[in-house]
Design a protein that fits this description.
Elements: H1 5-14, H2 19-33, H3 37-51, H4 58-71, H5 74-86, H6 92-105, H7 111-128, H8 133-144, H9 154-163, H10 167-196, H11 207-232, H12 238-256, H13 265-295, H14 298-309, H15 313-328, H16 333-350, H17 355-368, H18 377-386, H19 390-396, H20 398-413, H21 416-424
């Protein structure tokens, strides 16, 4: 009977119950009907135990670092730096949008933060230059999914915590796929710019002006270098790296750029606290959900079903990508990873797929789901920032989604794309 927990959870989602309550109510009700009251106690105890983790402390710290950098005007400096490099190209502001997302990804690791911070700045600017508002919102939403792929990444921290993987290995494995998504989006922008005669954003900057823009962006761009460098050299753990990122953001905001004031700190802390609380509650609830997954023997049943379809790992990877893409349309990446990771991960690692490689396939696929209709979260954020309807943005984003899906299949069938850097640095086999 317990195997019905997943369909019941989906029913709760469809009737509008928040994900947090659905994750607890679906297994709780089935345990009660099954007469397993003792396991209900275990279920709700795991709500706290799922959050009581040192590695997960990295998430609120990274959230706070992103808020500090955004409020401190660092986003503006990244946009100016991107414009100095690419603003002279046809479709320059669209290229600037994508490059800014790639740079911003190294600071916050959040697609929602990327969409709101860059969208509020670039969507009006693009509209003023002659782009349609729906195109500006679509490219902002499409490029924002790079945020959780290029390290630091909140969802990779969650995956590593749930599945017992190395955070450093996942961070390194996400570098090239994140860059590939950005380059692919820029190529699509170029094709559309030539076809629809997009405007040039600015004149070509001189090398001296580019140097000045680089100096302004230097300290923000050092953030991912400090985070990744410290982790890889063993100076600090990922959680300590997140705390270092907060300290670095405070130093830059107060003493280097002098764009932060003490009076702004309460609002910054409140926003970071609320966002972190939502994520951590979902993690706790999903860890409780995972308890019922193990009790129901769902992984074994699913493994038998998958292997009954075909034993060809290449075909199975294709099918699992379709499944993850479908899940990503309706469920946020964090909960989806915690629910499906323990079910799908062992199946594919048992078939010889490297655990880090499968982690990247899953993380990238579910991240792209954030920009996929009908329930993609960043579509709603882009709609709120731009004032454009979600359905309109959803139609305009389709060419960019096609690029991102192509990248997903590329990293699925060419493991070296994501695995080369972790292997060269000794973080993967």
């Amino acid at each position: 009977m317990l195997i019905w927990f997943l369909p019941l959870f989906l029913v709760f989602l469809m009737i509008g119950l928040p994900v947090f309550f659905g994750l607890l109510a679906a297994p709780g009700l089935l345990l009660w009907f099954n007469g397993q009251e003792r396991d209900i106690t275990l279920l709700y105890r795991n709500l706290y135990n799922g959050m009581d983790s040192f590695p997960l402390m990295a998430i609120p710290f990274f959230m706070l670092a992103g808020e500090l950098m955004n409020k401190g005007g660092i986003t503006l400096r990244l946009v100016e730096f991107s414009q100095a490099l690419m603003g002279h190209l046809r479709g320059g502001l669209a290229h600037v949008n994508v490059l800014s997302s790639m740079l911003f990804a190294g600071l916050s690791g959040s697609a929602v933060a990327d969409t709101s911070a860059l969208g509020s700045m670039l969507i009006p600017a693009m509209e003023k230059q002659g782009y349609s508002r729906r195109f500006a919102a679509a490219i902002t939403a499409a490029s924002s999914v790079i945020g959780p792929i290029i390290p630091p990444s909140g969802i990779m921290i969650i995956y590593a915590y749930v599945m017992g993987e190395s955070v450093a290995a996942l961070f390194l494995a996400g570098l090239v796929p994140g860059i590939l998504v950005g380059v692919g989006l820029m190529l699509m922008v170029k094709v559309m710019a030539d076809r629809y005669d997009f405007p040039v954003a600015s004149r070509r900057y001189t090398w001296g002006e580019r140097g000045q823009a680089s100096l302004k962006a230097f300290f923000p761009l050092m953030t991912p270098v400090i985070i990744l460098g410290g982790i890889l050299l063993g100076v600090f753990t990922p959680t300590e790296a997140a705390a270092v990122a907060v300290a670095y953001a405070l130093i830059i905001g107060f003493f280097v750029l002098r764009t932060l004031t003490v009076t702004e700190l309460p609002n910054i802390l409140t926003r970071a606290g609320i966002t972190s609380a939502v994520v951590l509650l979902l993690v706790g609830a999903a860890m409780s959900f995972k308890t019922v997954v193990s009790l129901s023997h769902a992984p074994e049943h699913l493994a038998d079903f998958i292997l009954s379809l075909t034993e060809n790992p290449l075909l199975l990877l294709f099918l699992i990508n379709l499944l993850l893409f479908g899940v990503g349309m309706f469920l946020d990446a964090g909960p989806a990873i915690i629910i499906l990771g323990p079910i799908l991960g062992p199946v594919f690692t048992g078939m010889g797929v490297d655990s880090v490689h499968f982690a990247i396939i899953m993380c990238v696929n579910l991240t792209v789901g954030l920009a996929t209709p009908p329930m993609g979260l960043v579509l709603f954020v882009a709609s709120a920032v731009s004032g454009e309807r979600v359905t309109t943005i959803a139609r305009a984003i389709l060419p960019f989604l096609a690029v991102e899906i192509a990248v997903i299949f590329l990293i699925t069938y060419v493991p070296a794309i994501s695995m080369t850097i972790p292997r060269l640095t000794g973080f993967a086999n």
